[in-house]
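Problem 12. The chain below contains 535 residues. Write out its predicted structure in token notation.
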Amino acid sequence: MTDPPTDAVDRGSPAGQDRRIARSTAVFSLATAVSRVLGLVREMVSAYFFGVAGKINAFTVAIQIPNLVRALVADAALSGAFVPVFSELLERGEKQRAWRVASTLFWLTLLVLGGVTALFILAAPLLLRPFGDPGGDFDLTVGLSRVLFPIVVLLGLSGIVVGILNTYGQFALPALAPVAWNLVIILGLVLGVPRIDGEDAQLYLYAGVVVLGTLVQLLLPVPWLRRLDGRLTRAFDWRDPAVRRVLVLMLPVTLTIGLVNVNFVVDTLFASRLLDPELAPTAIDKAFRLYMLPQGIFAVAVTTVLFPTLARLAARGDTAGLRRMLDSGLRQIAFLLVPAGLVSIVLAEPIVRLVYERGEFTAENTVVVGQCLQAFAIGLVFNGWMLILNRSFYAVQSNWVPTAVALGAVGLNVLLDAVFYRLGIWGIPLATSAVNVVASVVLLVLMRRRIGLEHVGATVGVVLRIVVAGVLAAVAALVVWYELDAALGRGVLAQVVSVGAGLVASGLVYLVTSRLLRIRELDALRLLRAQRDEP
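Solution.
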């Protein structure tokens, strides 16, 4: 599955460019959807074997520090700094130098992150002490984190590989690599857990298959690099100014992404120390996984596909084109995530029940996780806007702006966590949503000052019409689900029918209403159809 080269996108007319970007977004979304669905299956398997109460909270906390370090110095941080520089070198015709820079960064990543991983394995007890006794077993938490830390170096290398492929317009395969990651974990749990005695050993197996899946995720796209017009070599030209520029750009990107992940660590700290250490961390995490499903399928797809184009437009000094692409991205994310957020709010408990409630996961857990999902869903579209706005600042190489906003967001998150945790476990996700709203508004204002925004009044009008269509879609989902749930009951098949029918009804109502309200983001579907019909 191969997408059109990005340079081909840029050379076409605006309509042709929109058509190709729409196609790439659809392909990426489809590939990501497969991965996210498998990720949901992975969470279902985990919930079946471990539930949300007890020692599984040790695993939930143990993976937080490796994930934070990964965010600080690995995949997304490297890609955010690497893609604009790599794109600029290719745009200037310096292909050989571009690949030498990529090779140097690959080996630097291996050496530096390998050392960081070893250091954090040794320091794990100190890093995890502030979390108390998650799952009632601090030593288990430390041991699991030490097994999980190698994902840092593996995902760092993956960031370089994915950045190269994305710059060349290859989006589908990097999106499918997480499919293999999820499959390895699912198979490892299904085949391994029933054969192992003791919950501690089962959780160590869980950690081990996560690392194995990450290795597979790194290796799977590597053969596709050979199809490109360059090669990763053993080059180590760290004196190249372009290498230094990536590292300089990476600092604010690292801080920005890291600070965003610091928020989740802070949330986990409040949940573990001030709420319920044997329920709250994993309950919030399970809700977060469901919340990230539409985010990963839609917002990440739009952002990933647009980022190389934004970087190229910025390198050319095409501010008008940059504004047009950003405006299109903001509207598309609103079109996709507003209805997803509203439907998640009205169907939160049925969705959680269908996905998780079996095995060790009880009906009481469903209520708690459902409340957390509703609170997360309030900020869904704003989180999507933050993704594309941050990448837009990276494209114009104004990387410190989102860093400053992220720093302010951490302070606001701590303050709101301290206030909202008194509401219960769902107060922590509510604080996260409030932070997303404030941060996205600040980024929008700052981006408008930096490059301007296209047709602000028209975009606000489109978003308002999208909200109207989304509310009607959510009402349709709730009505259809309620009637079928009352008629069919709560068997697994009955839940699949009632929830599925509610989601289908909401989608149909949303599309029809969007057409009646003349929301032009539907044009993306027509562009895809037009391209399919081309000879």
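Discussion. The mean pLDDT is 80. Students who got a different answer should revisit the alignment rule from Section 12.3.
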